[in-house]
Amino acid sequence: MNIEKFLGHHGVSTNPFAAEEASLDPVFDRMLDGPAMHPDFAKVLGRIDRPSGAVVFGEKGSGKTAMRLMTERHVARHNEENPESRILIVPYDDLNPVLDRMTRWFRGDELVMLDHFGLADHQDAILSRAVTRLIDGLLDDDPETVTTPLPQDAWQRLRRLRRDQRIDFLALAAFYDQPVNGSMMARWQRLKQKLRTGWRLPHQVILQGAILLSLLGAGLAATLGLELGVAFYLTPAAGITLGGAIALWVWWCWSRWTLWSRCKQLIRELRPIDRTVEEMMSMLGQIGAVDLARQPLPVSGKQADESKPADDGRYRLTQRLIEVLGVLGYTGVMVIMDRVDEPTIISGNPTRMRPLIWPLFDNKFFQQPGVGIKLLLPIELRHLLYKESPEFFQSARLDKQSLIDRLSWSGATLYDLCSSRLRACRQSSNTEFYLTDLFAEDVTTPLLVDALDQMHQPRDAFKFVYNVIQEHCRIIPEDEENYQIARLTLDNVRQRQAQRVQDLYRGLSPG
User: pLDDT by residue (tens digit) across 463-488?
Assistant: First the structure.
């Protein structure tokens, strides 16, 4: 029998159990607007209007990516219903670009790079994604990819900010904006023009003026010296002019060297950001020394404001981003970290994941006002975490971070999930349809619940049900038209799939 014919007999238009990855699952897309199936989802989500931290450990296929997608959908719905208290979602699920740029700083040595990957690097990467998303929405560079809805009067709101606040936003863009397409400098100039921060004489013009004054001073001194028959350096007017030109030249050289040194330091600190010293100099040179001096620079050294800790710059920059977002109707930021085992450098190796993730277990980082950090982590890291010292847990304070020790599923929850997927794929609007309706009368709900309980998680549960349907269709001829799966078929597939799951947990099977 054909699987499509079997499902079609039950009014199911699409196989609900064929997909194994939530991000590529069309059935899951239909269910995103429905109720959450996992009982721990509400704890992970928390209050959307007051984003908070959460740490989730789960097996492969336990639903971490599905939880991320559902979180994004709930936040999107909240944003539609509350346009003046939106939350900015910052996906932190593709670490390959960040790790590749970091590796170049360590001459291709991946292990050394991971050992030196710190909390500051995570903060820079997260700020970069948040700032880039915001500026994408403001400049509307690519309407098809813009995911940050903004009010119609966004620019008017930003222009009503004080000048120093608009300068702060420009500095954030200079540090962190990472456009996918187009010139960084052209984009920054557009932002500066729209923010109307005022005009400042470029350093190149100052240099040309210094050169011109030097030539005029020298020419005037020589002319007066010839006419008066005295040495040109004794001419007061020429001496003052030439002295002013020299002073201007020295000032320009000193200011350029100071700016270059600062930009060089910034480039060394902002390792996850793709920026050159020349680009940074061009942008910061237009901000001005006075405005730049009060900026909390993302560096590990001494801050311009000596009353602030040396490592406080990134936290202050995050709060300045929150302030800008507040003007645009956003009350906070929600960062969702997922798929940390997938980057090429990591390749699922727990010992490589550990130095990458451990810096994030910082209570101050989790408790930032207006910022919710959601970490969806592989179960292998949980085993390593529980080997840490009491001092580590005291510093991390995971007891305050909505910790989900293991994202586990009961057989009853998996049964409800499978039934919901069946109903989502049915052509009929009748909601009274359950997984047991595919089986013979002697296959009861408790029997299916017990079988699904051995699968432990959604991905394996879907594989199990898919194989049961496939086995039934394999042994039933087309002309027999038997559309109820027998208990014997269920038991045979159950035995094989339970053994596969056990082998998977022991590391004896790839999946």
Answer: 999 999 999 999 999 888 899 999 99
From residue 303, give the alpha-carbon distance in Å to each of 93, 167, 275, 315: 31, 18, 21, 13
Query: In whole angstroms, what separates CA 479 from the centre of its chain?
Result: 54
501 is written with which tokens?
A: 């799951």
Convert the pLDDT of each residue in 307-326 to its tens digit: 444 468 999 999 999 999 99
Please state, in angstroms and rounded to a whole number, the distance separating the CA atoms of residues 63 and 341: 15
- Sole residue written with tokens 């309407």: 143
Buried-exposed string 188-216: b where 16+ CB fall within 10 A, e elsewhere: bebbbeebebeeeeebeebeeebeebbee
pLDDT class of 199 with cuts at 50, 70, 90: low
Q: Give the number of other CB atoms < 10 A from CB of residue 161.
A: 16
Residue 301 per-residue DSSP state: S
**Residue length, the chain?**
511
Domain boundaries, the chain: 3-12+410-505, 39-156+170-182+314-404, 203-285
Mean pLDDT of the chain: 86
What are the backbone dihedrals phi and psi of residue 55, each rounded to the nearest 5 degrees, phi first? Answer: -130, 125
For domain 39-156+170-182+314-404, say whether CATH 3.30.70 is its number: no
Burial of 169 (0-12, 13-18, 19+ CB in 10 A): buried
Q: What is the pLDDT of residues 330-367, one digit of tens each?
A: 999 999 999 999 999 999 899 999 999 999 999 999 99
- In angstroms, the Cα distances linking 123 to 207, 312, 313, 495 are 37, 11, 11, 48
Report the pLDDT value the prediction gives residue 426, as an integer from 0 to 100: 87
438 phi and psi angles, rounded to 5 deg: -85, -10
Gyration radius of the chain's alpha carbons: 31
The model's pLDDT over 168-189, given as tens digits with 9 standing for 90+, comes to 999 999 999 999 887 888 899 9
- Placement of tokens 């194994």 in the chain: 20
Neighbouring C-beta atoms of residue 418, cutoff 10 Å? 23
**Both tokens assigned to 37:** 């199936």
What lies within 8 Å, CB to CB, of 230 at 6+ separation is 224
**How many Å apart are CA 201 and CA 228, to the nearest integer?**
38
442 CB-contact burial (10 Å; exposed 0-12 / middle 13-18 / buried 19+): exposed
